[in-house]
Amino acid sequence: DLQICQHRAPTCCTKKMEESYQAAVRRERTQSIQALNFELKYMIVGHITAFQEAFESLLRFAENRTSSLFETAYRPMAKEAAEPVKELFTDISLYILGAETTVESAVLRFFDSLFPLVYSRLINPGITDLSEDYTECLRLTRQDINPFGHYSKNMVTELSKYLWASRMLIQALSLGIEVINTTEHAALTKECSKALVKMQYCPHCQGLTLIRPCVGYCLNVMRGCLASVSELDAHWREYISTLEYLTNEMAASHDLEIALTGIRNSINEAILHAQLNGPQLSATVDKVCGQPRRGGDLSSDSIVPVKEATEAQTFVMAHASLNNKRREFINYMKRSRTFYASIAERLCDGDLVMRDSSTCWNGEDVV
C-alpha cells in the first residue's frame, strides 16, 4: 500500500512511515531555509539597530545644539522653549521611523508654539498676562501673519528633502525582513513533499540508509519545490538596487547629518526675522487679539540653564559611524543579489548530496 516509495523488491516501509517521512521533509526544509535566511536577516536587523542608534545620537546632538541656542541667545524664553524643541525632535524621530506624520506638520506645529514666546518675551517683553486664550490667538495668528518669513517654509523644504531617504531606508529594511520571514514559512505542495521523500527517504525503505541523492537529481527536485520562492529573484535584485540608491542618496545630497544640525540656524534666522519686524507684528496682533496687560520685566527665576550642547566629537563619531554602517551594509546586500536565484543550489550543497562517491540515488535506484 505504499504511495511514494513503490519498488519491486521487498521493503521495510509502511504507509504510516511514508506519512512520517513527509512530516520530516517539511520540517527539514523549513529549518534549511531558516538557516540560509538567518545570516541575511541578521545583517538587516543589525543594520536597522545600528542605523537607529547612530541616528538617535545625531538627533540628541542636534536637539542639544538647538536648546543651547535659546540658552545663549534668547535666555528670556529658554525655559518655555524647551518643550516645543523636544516635541519637534520627537516628531522628526517618529517620521523617520515610519509614523503617519509629515515633516511639515512637525515644523509648523513647532513655529505655532514658538510665536507666543517670541512675541511675549522678545518683541514685547513687558507682557505679563499670557492667558490661554491670548496664547491660542497668537498661535492661530502665526499662520496668517507669517512672522518668521520664508524661514519656516525653507526649514520644511530642507528637512523634507533630507529626511525622506532615511525614512524610506528604514521602511525598505523592514520590508526586507518581512519578505525573508514569508519565504521561511512558504508551504510545500503535496507533490513537492512526495518528491522530497522519494529523494531523501525512499532509499531507506530498501535498507540503503547511507546512500545520498545525486547532485543533478537534488537540484531538479529543489528547483521544482522552490519555484515560487525563485520567482522572487527579479524583485529581490530590484530591491537591492533600491537600497543602493537610497544609501547613496543619504550619503550624497540628502545628507541627514547636515539637515539635523542645520535646524539650529534655521530657527535662529526665523526668530531674528520676527524681531526685525516687531512693530508691524505688534500692530497686527493688537488688532486681531487685543492688547494684553503689561507689567515689569520677567523675573529671573523663570530662566533655567539648559545643558550645553554635546561636544562636536560626538557628532563626528556618530556621523562616521553612520557612513561606515551604510557602506558595510550595502556591500553585504549587493553580495546577496542572487540569494533567491541560487536557493536550490545552496540547499543541495553540503551533507544532503553525494559529492565524492561514485554511487548516488537517482530516485529509482543506486547509480
Automatic annotation (TrEMBL):
It is a lipid-anchor; GPI-anchor. It comes from the Eukaryota. Coiled coil: none annotated. GO terms for cellular component: cell surface; extracellular region; plasma membrane; side of membrane. InterPro entries: Glypican, Glypican_CS. GO terms for biological process: cell migration; positive regulation of canonical Wnt signaling pathway; regulation of protein localization to membrane. Its main location: membrane. Keywords: Cell membrane, Glycoprotein, GPI-anchor, Heparan sulfate, Lipoprotein, Membrane, Proteoglycan, Signal. It is found in: Cell membrane. It holds the Pfam family Glypican. Cell surface proteoglycan. Belongs to the glypican family. This is GPC5 protein. It comes from Crotophaga sulcirostris (Groove-billed ani). The lineage of its organism: Eukaryota, Metazoa, Chordata, Craniata, Vertebrata.
